[in-house]
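This part of the workshop introduces the protein records we will be handling. As an example, a complete record with its sequence and its structure tokens follows.
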Amino acid sequence: MKNNYLIVMAGGVGSRFWPYSTKEKPKQFLDVTNSGETLIQQTVNRFQGICPAENVFVVTNKRYSQLVREQLPGLDSAQILTEPVSRNPAPCIAYAAYKIKQINSKANIIVTPADHIIKKRGIFRNVIREVLEFTVSNDCLVTLGIQPTSPNTGYGYIQFDADNRQQSLYKVTRFTEKPNHQTAKKFYDSEDYLWNSGIFVWNVNAI
């Protein structure tokens, strides 16, 4: 467990949830489910027992750094990585991964959005543990897919090769970002597309 690290992406403005979610306090900092925990608190807590608290990093817009400190008081300032404006998350992930590699050259990294609602926490943890075991000994990046329940155009889609499987993992053949309705319907009707969860796992030496 000591080699497991978590990067939480928490810089979004939550525009699709306006007016409940605002630029001043976007949805990841709100108790959307009335559970007593905000979404970012739920996100960090669901990885308890998988990633030590000191191995958690939050990437966010600098305007939200104080909200992160208030809602995740267990983090020290070095665990909160800020960007001046919200842009493509790839550079932020790369920076956080580079920082982690300087700390631990054997690190296994999980990247997750801060605004997911995952009710079946036990099942989710088992999946994450299985993926972590796989990435330790395989030079690859693993992404988690979600079985679509509608031809939703608000999600990215992952196409997988059903004939190329290792354990419960499949080879990804294509990523598609937020398609139009016609394309989303085509993906939904097929049996080889999943919603892209935005959760990625890899060993720091793989990429």
About this structure: The CA atoms of residues 69 and 151 lie 37 Å apart. The longest strand covers residues 193-203. The two ends are 21 Å apart (CA to CA). The helical segments are 39-45, 65-71, 89-103, 121-137, 181-189.
